[in-house]
Design a protein that fits this description.
mainly alpha; 8 helices; rod-shaped
Length: 171
């Protein structure tokens, strides 16, 4: 009994597609009876099938084109983050991209905070410029033009040298 109800549900979902297939076969048969050769009758039957299926799909709202949710949980230091950072270093005209500049500014904010300084406080600007140098200062405060890769590298080197104690500095 249970098997019969399951089969009836399965076949209930196949009623419309089976009607379409039977209708397309009937169209092919009619074209053969009318006088078309076998190849053309089969071709017209298949063309009927494709057209009717396309109409049915479009009338039912078409196929779902929504993006599936991304299941990957990104963590700091993940491969995707490294890839995004490396691509941001390849800006136009030998200049770094906005993503690389945002990242170095975040690192600079943390490094300067260890010295009790902040890019947000105007009274700290002279001390920051003296600590990091003019090139790093220009990179960190750039508004319109993106820095070159060389300037960016000099800024990163200045931030590495600005470690509050020698044990924190990396070789």
């Amino acid at each position: 009994m249970r098997r019969a109800s399951t089969l009836s549900r399965v076949f209930a979902g196949l009623v419309v597609p089976m009607r379409i297939v039977v209708g397309a076969a009937a169209a092919g048969l009619v074209t053969k009876v009318v006088g078309f050769d076998t190849e053309h009758a089969i071709l017209l039957g298949l063309a009927t099938l494709v057209i009717v299926l396309a109409v049915v799909v479009l009338r039912r709202g078409g196929a779902s084109a929504a993006w599936l949710p991304d299941d990957r949980a990104e963590t700091d230091g993940s491969r995707l983050e490294v890839a995004a950072l490396s691509w941001s270093l390849l800006g136009r005209g030998g200049r770094v991209g906005e993503g690389a500049l945002r990242r170095v500014r975040a690192v600079a904010a943390g490094r300067l905070a260890r010295h009790g300084l902040s890019l947000e406080r105007p009274q700290d600007h002279e001390q920051i410029r003296a600590l990091l140098g003019p090139t790093a200062w220009t990179v960190l405060t750039a508004n319109a033009d993106m820095p070159s890769r060389r300037e960016y590298e000099q800024c990163v080197a200045a931030l590495e040298r600005a470690a509050p104690d020698a044990s924190e500095a990396r070789p």
